[in-house]
Amino acid sequence: MEASSTSLKRLKFGKLKVVRRRLLQRYEHQPFISCLAGFYSCRWKRYQRRRTEPGKCCCKTRECVFFPLLVGAFCFSLVFLYMWGEAKNDYNNFDWYNYGNLGFWFLWSLVLLIVAAILFMYITLLLVLAMCLLAEGQQLYLHWSHKIGTFLVLGFSVTALFILSVLWGDQWKTVRLSFQITAPYLHIGAITIMVLLSWPVALHAIRADKKVVQVIIVGPYLAILLFLFLIPLGMYSPCIREMGTLGPKPALIGHRGAPMLAPENTEMSFQKTIEHGGDGLETDVTISYDGVPFLMHDSTLRRTTNIKEVYPNDTAQNAALFSWDTLQELNAGMWFLKDKPFSCMGSLSRADQNQAMNQSIYKLSNFLRLADSQNKLVIFDLYRPPEKHPYRNSWINRTLEVILNESGIRPHLVLWLENDMRSFVQSIAPGFQQTMGSKASVEDLMMDNIVKLNLAYTEMSSEDIRKYAEANITTNLYVVNEPWLFSLAWCSGAHSVTTNAVHTLKNLSQPLFLMTPQQYNIMWILTDLTSVLLISLIFALHWWREQSFSCCAHDGGPMLESGTYNKFRTELSDMPAITA
Description:
disordered C terminus
């Protein structure tokens, strides 16, 4: 009898050791779950948390309603961050627009990018914590402070997208163009996320006790996955092309010179373009009150000169209403060192700083002489003077006088863009390369002797560029600063681009993204097949483990209670008997 009692105690002690080992495994895992729940729910104590029972919802009704808001905030913040990140090519235009409304220069574009990145990282962290908690079988409860933060991220992203769409709708065209470069990599990233999501999806789908719940969980997941598998079928990119079909690298025309390296529209700026191998120079021409064409982009002198110090009462006056003698008194370089118009500007050497500080407003005749001496193409926007200006009706004649009689530039170097009085200009200067600023039919362009189109990069179309090229009409795209956008212009067949970043784009030896259709198909198919294999293995693993625990339950043995599998119920009712 005593031997039988001893054997029973040993048996129970052995079971206790098994239970103890499994409980230790569980509690060794608790710090990880505590961190997840602590950061997500501010529930650091174990007794504050609740596990998801098999076949039950992963959270309470209120949390079920709020979780889609969390996902929506993530999606909207991702869209805004991507849009604004791809809009970097036009940050200077955005800051210039704000300068015109606010009256002072500031890099608002960079601030907006930083805020968007911080908010996206915050909402992404919350979503990752939620997914990890779901994968661990924990009920979701988002802390009230995070709920406020989620509403702030959602409100900020939706508002920013709406305002930019209204005021700057062309940026969606930039986003559409960017997909022609980034789509293959976005596809891989999306598939990777779906593979990671398969873990909590498989866990809760297999544990669901109703077929309807399983369909609700798995159905949308598989629909999205199928969409991602097939979306490359509708993708087009001119950078996916056969070997040997890529055209020559587009020529680089400095937009107002090299405005990232020197004050725009100054002699130093154009010299920097020439030093870095630019093929042409672009500028803006205004005519002074006494008939001297000079280089100035803005309608006033406030942004790019020191007129506030010299003539503080005339800061709002049109630049064309000043005489040339007055314009010569102004400094056109100190603002560049003070305001730093581009966020990606490098530091200038001491010599360049001194040179920039001593720049003055540049005459058109001097600009043309410089271009002619270096054999560089020139293209410029010609601004008509305001009402009551002496040259209001003779602005084109006066400009032609300077080009033909005062500068001595060879006519074939001039890309004539102004559309007014084009027939007259052709009769006076037949050697100019007639350039049009908008798309038109090939027949109309040839009728006007147009040899080049000067188009905004948002109008980029490889099909149109090819069509015009067949009629010996080349295409210039403006303003192209980012390497990815230049790569797309290169693949599309553009003859030249106007850019603020000649010094950067000159170093590109080939497009950033270029592959053959065969290479892309292999990448696409391998990505899809690999993801199918991994997702199938994850679903199979969850099914096998659930079956294993079900078998243990039928055998009447102790069942493991872990963060991931919440079916194990340890029975310690025999503890007093063992210790007795």
